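Form 7-S
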Amino acid sequence: MSSLHEECGIFGVYSPVKQDVARTAYYGLFALQHRGQESCGIVVCDDGLFSTYKDLGLVEEVFTERHLARLGQGNIAVGHVRYGTTGATDRHNAQPLVVNHIHGHIAIAHNGNITNSFELRSQLELQGSIFHTTSDTEVISYIVTRERITSNSIEEAVERAMYTIKGAYSLAVMSPTKLVIARDPYGFRPLCYGVRDDGTYIAASETCALESVGAKFVRDVLPGEVVYFDKDGVHSIKTHCGKQKKHICVFEFVYFARPDSVIDGVSVHSARVKAGEYLAKSHPVEADIVIGVPDSGLDAAIGYSKESGIPYEIGYIKNKYIGRTFIAPGQDNREDKVKLKLNPISSVVKGKRVVVIDDSIVRGTTSKKTIKLLRDAGAKEIHMRVSSPTFLNPCFYGTDIDSKDNLIACHHSVEEIAKIIGADSLGFLSVENVRDIAGGECCTACFDGKYPTAIPKDNRKSRFESKISDKD
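Output:
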């Protein structure tokens, strides 16, 4: 793991009339592609009949015109893009998952990571449940299905399931007649909805996906809230709201989300610019230019330049046809991708004292390579600034850091890290400052060890290797 991994992106459509909801979901998933590049899928509901297509790969690779045509018309759809923080890279783990039960069927898409997955899975298996995936989403689907059997509605089943599932989750659940979305009581992962002029409701992980399909943002789903859409409009269940202090993952603002998204009222672009400004104040340096590592380092670089007065330049060109380094399973693949992904502009950096801004340092592998690219291009000095604090703790809520073993800051001082990656100086954003850019109500456990929930008793997962884990 050279850098951070995203989790997933979810998308939902509810239309009062039959239309090409599959294509709407397709465009929405395109806008959320940055949140996961391992697999994707869409399920369409047409008068209670579900049509499904999902596979490994990018949205444009998986969904051809033929596949979209086969999904057909309908009035409800759910879609998903995946990078699995738990479970193997396998077609069976692609979402949405479809479950048939005595009262009908549901399709479910999930973003996040539930902390009691292993315990719940063990209980379900002892009760006779048979699992077909290694994803914790299947655990959620079993819990929701179990509650649906004794509930009056799918929205009631989801609300009741929230008493059992713990940790981070934003959900999109489709029944034959409704679209249900829900956000965990801590609000770890973002979720919002909007509406188009034709009355079609759109739900998505980020506002950028609403805009991509012509929907006007209505509001964010509250932590703990269940929202459902049916023929009578939009409805809300707030049984679980206000029971926990909000803890949205701060890395939504540092790295995960697209810059043009607004999460819980905070502009992602503005948050990153502000991070750069804080870095310039706390870690000033004499230099000739400021550059950012594409893409999530660019906004912070603009902020650093603005505050310091050092000119901002484009120092790297990114190959737009290569996915995020972070996404490729297996360390060797990630390191190879760094070589293909970035190229320095020699005429910009040659002979210059350069401040380079990146969003994070996990192992240090990628930072070492990006700095070497600048050295080879003739940079005179390289001062690295990072728009997040040092990673010191594992994350249990959807960011792919499950061990201290692979965190360079757990084993080396800042000065030692600078030497290892080849920088003349190195500075990180403070925990206080990173909280501020996210609006204050956020989870920073990976930096300070202050977990808002109980730590899982059993965390049997490893994404540092591309192997099937025995736990989600």
